[in-house]
Write a structure and sequence with these properties.
β12 and β13 form a beta hairpin. This protein is α+β, with helices and mostly antiparallel strands. The strands form three sheets. Strands 1, 4, 5, 6, 7, 10, 11, 12, 13, 14, 15 and 16 form a twelve-stranded antiparallel sheet that branches. It has four helices and 16 strands. The protein has two domains: 58 residues; 173 residues, Jelly Rolls (Sandwich), CATH 2.60.120. α1 runs antiparallel to α3. Helix content is 26%, strand content 34%. It is elongated, with a radius of gyration of 29 Å.
Length: 253
């Protein structure tokens, strides 16, 4: 096996087994589109994303709640509500357009949960939600398995994040150098209100790279085999003999 062949195979398979890159982070942007359902606020504008509306849920919904590859867990009473309750939660409102559908609230006091965890059975690379009346004590954290990638507070997502019920927007999160397998929403004080969650599954780069590496290996192996067959060897020997014969004749004359 030639040095070139060994080198190409080594490079192909080294690239195939890269599973993560250093410097993993989460970035975000704001902006969505009007939801198809009336009085639902904003939904994601990301093509191909799956949306969870919560519209079929109520304050009687028990944990866990599963939607697609997402599973929501919490301890205590259901975090799904409609409308507003003074001092506890307020429906997201954008430009005087009130979200009258069911939404998720975290940290609304009483027996309602201060933490809601979303676990994904398949890794995702995008997550979005409609966020209303953000506060400095609202926090969302993104994990790749057990490793924290990054956390954000409400005022980082929508400034000034002072709990104003006139503030709302759709927030889009994108992972870089990692995948998202778990999201934790926390608020120790009323409240962290959000709706219309959306997600997009992460591509499978390791599988694609492995297939590409194996294909490169097969191509190199085939090329090497063609060079080492008896016919190929005989042809090369014949060419070398002819070249030597020509060189001798040139030297004699």
């Amino acid at each position: 096996m030639g040095n070139l062949f060994r080198g190409v195979v080594a490079v192909a398979f080294a690239g195939s087994f890269v599973t993560a890159l250093p410097g993993a982070t989460i970035t975000f942007s704001r902006g969505g589109v009007t939801c198809p359902a009336a009085n639902s606020g904003l939904c994601t504008a990301v093509a191909g994303a799956t949306t969870i509306t919560f519209d079929e849920l109520s304050s009687a919904t028990d944990a866990p709640y599963q939607a697609g590859i997402a599973t929501f867990t919490w301890t205590g009473a259901s975090p799904f509500v409609q409308g507003s309750a003074e001092g506890l939660y307020a429906a997201p409102t954008l430009n005087a357009l009130l979200d009258t559908t069911t939404y998720l609230t975290v940290g609304s006091g009483g027996s309602m949960p201060n933490t809601v965890t979303i676990s994904f059975s398949k890794p995702i690379s995008y997550f979005g939600f409609y966020l209303g009346s953000p506060d400095t004590y609202n926090q969302i954290s993104f994990f790749d398995e057990g490793v924290l990638i990054k956390s954000f507070t409400g005022d980082q997502l929508i400034n000034p994040g002072n709990g104003s019920q006139t503030l709302a927007d759709y927030v889009n999160f994108y992972s870089h150098g990692a995948v998202i397998t778990r999201i934790v929403m926390t608020s120790l004080t009323p409240a962290f209100e959000n709706d219309s969650h959306s997600y997009q599954e992460a591509p499978e780069p390791a599988t694609g790279a492995l297939a590409a590496g194996f294909a490169a290996f097969l191509l190199c192996w085939a090329a090497w085999r063609r060079r080492t067959t008896p016919v190929a060897l005989a042809s090369r020997l014949r060419r070398r003999a002819e070249e030597s014969s020509r060189a001798i004749r040139i030297g004699l004359f």
